[in-house]
Write a structure and sequence with these properties.
8-stranded parallel beta sheet, about 35% helix, alpha/beta, globular
């Protein structure tokens, strides 16, 4: 992975057709996805259950861009090696998932992955002030984690605070939750550069009609890019 602050669209395959993950991944990449976002949930840290390491390993051969794995699980540390072995390029853990997030980020990097730290809506930007030199990505949740398709929570002040704290460090600011062409300009103008979108990408399309995915991706990217240029 090379670092730049260009807008990146990372479709969440939580909104894909579960019976066709390989084809869905290939379709969104062919239609312009920059990263592929994989939401891992444990039914404990969040009220839903999704993909374990074997599923993520099965996705890996289909992902030609960046496999961005978001762990909504607790504890995290016992699973870091498993997701490294599964092929994650970026592994993001929640600050709220345990008492030793500093050690968690160290372990993610030691396993050869980029390290992300996620913040729930109720967690302030300042909570990561002493973690930035260990982070490659900060994820701002704009919904409460656990389910796709939720309504966007305005976290633009938090995003701005994070961008100011990050300064010139090569750290991505990612936003996840309720991102669509209406909300993408808000987060992009505030400083986000990686936009996770699930239902807003997959809505209306299918593996047999993937052009809709491309239309949706382009609409989100255009809205975000225009807003950033105007800022």
């Amino acid at each position: 992975m090379t670092f730049d602050r260009a807008i990146k669209i990372a479709p969440s395959i939580l909104s894909a057709d579960f019976a066709n993950f390989g084809r869905e991944i290939r379709a969104i990449e062919a239609q312009g996805a920059d990263w592929v976002h994989v939401d891992v949930m444990d039914g404990h840290f969040v009220p839903n259950l999704t993909f374990g390491p074997p599923a993520v390993k099965a996705f890996r051969p289909h992902v030609k861009t960046v496999m961005d794995v978001h762990l909504m699980i607790a504890p995290v540390d016992p699973w870091i090696e498993a997701y490294a072995d599964a092929g994650a390029d970026v592994l993001t853990a929640h600050l709220e998932a345990g008492p030793h997030i500093h050690r968690t980020l160290q372990a993610i990097r030691a396993a050869g992955m980029k390290a992300g730290v996620a913040l729930n809506p109720g967690t302030p930007a300042q909570a990561v002030a002493h973690l930035l030199d260990l982070a490659d990505l900060v994820l701002v949740m704009t919904v409460n984690p656990g389910f796709g398709g939720q309504k966007f929570i305005d976290m633009t002040d938090k995003i701005r605070a994070l961008r100011a704290m990050i300064g010139d460090r090569p750290i991505h600011v990612q936003v996840d939750g309720g991102v669509d062409p209406a909300t993408a300009p808000l987060v992009a103008e505030a400083g986000a550069d990686v936009l996770v979108a699930g239902s807003a990408v997959f809505r209306g399309g299918s593996v047999d009609n993937p052009a809709v995915y491309g239309d949706n991706i382009r609409a989100i990217r255009a809205a975000a890019t225009t807003s950033r240029a105007a800022a």
